[in-house]
């Protein structure tokens, strides 16, 4: 229900008791017939529907592109974007460069690069590297000048 004194053709007023002024209108002409008037309600609605369809299309395309970039299923449980991405891993070398073992819980870095040593050989190599760095930091001449595969194999056999 409208308050008294506020009907069609009446401008809004303040509560201070000001005089109500009717809005200017052209008798007998609707909004579509007034020169320079805004679009009709039907035209306005159809433009809004077209805009919404464009928004829906763009949203669907970006969602499909994001799903394709994540590998199809989104791997986020709920199908949304996943905050954490899996790092691509190089394939394991097939066998350890030091002991030639084929299966290990973890591939480790060695003198030949990343993922070239089995877990045991990689830990042994890291221990030798730390020992060498500690000797260099103390100003001593390290007993191990260079750690290569031959030296690592010999050291591993000596440790057994």
UniProtKB/TrEMBL annotation:
Molecular-function annotations in GO: sequence-specific DNA binding; zinc ion binding
Which SMART domains did the record assign?
Answer: ZnF_GATA
Stretches for region Disordered:
1-44, 69-106
Q: Which SUPFAM superfamilies match?
A: Glucocorticoid receptor-like (DNA-binding domain) (SSF57716)
The answer to keyword Cell membrane applying to this record is no
| Gly residues composition-biased segments | 71-81
Mind telling me which Pfam families this protein's record contains?
A: GATA
Q: Which Gene3D superfamilies match?
A: Erythroid Transcription Factor GATA-1, subunit A (3.30.50.10)
Q: What positions does the domain GATA-type occupy?
A: 90-125
Q: Does the keyword Zinc apply?
A: yes
Q: Which UniProt keywords apply?
A: Metal-binding, Zinc, Zinc-finger
GO terms (BP aspect): regulation of DNA-templated transcription
Read off the InterPro entries from this record: GATA_TF, Znf_GATA, Znf_NHR/GATA
The protein in question is named GATA-type domain-containing protein
């Amino acid at each position: 229900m409208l308050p008294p004194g506020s009907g069609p053709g009446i401008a809004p007023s303040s509560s201070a008791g000001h005089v109500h002024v009717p809005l200017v209108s052209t008798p007998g002409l609707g909004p579509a017939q007034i020169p320079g008037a805004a679009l009709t309600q039907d035209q306005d609605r159809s433009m809004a529907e077209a805009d919404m369809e464009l928004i829906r299309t763009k949203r669907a395309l970006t969602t499909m592109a994001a799903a394709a970039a994540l590998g199809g299923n989104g791997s986020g449980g709920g199908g949304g974007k996943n905050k954490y991405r899996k790092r691509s891993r190089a394939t394991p070398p097939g066998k350890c460069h030091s002991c030639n073992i084929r299966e290990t819980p973890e591939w480790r870095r060695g003198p030949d690069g990343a993922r070239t040593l089995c877990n045991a050989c990689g830990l042994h190599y890291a221990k030798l590297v730390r020992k060498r760095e500690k000797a260099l930091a103390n100003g001593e001449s390290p007993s191990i000048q260079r750690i290569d595969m031959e030296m690592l194999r010999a050291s591993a056999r000596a440790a057994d």
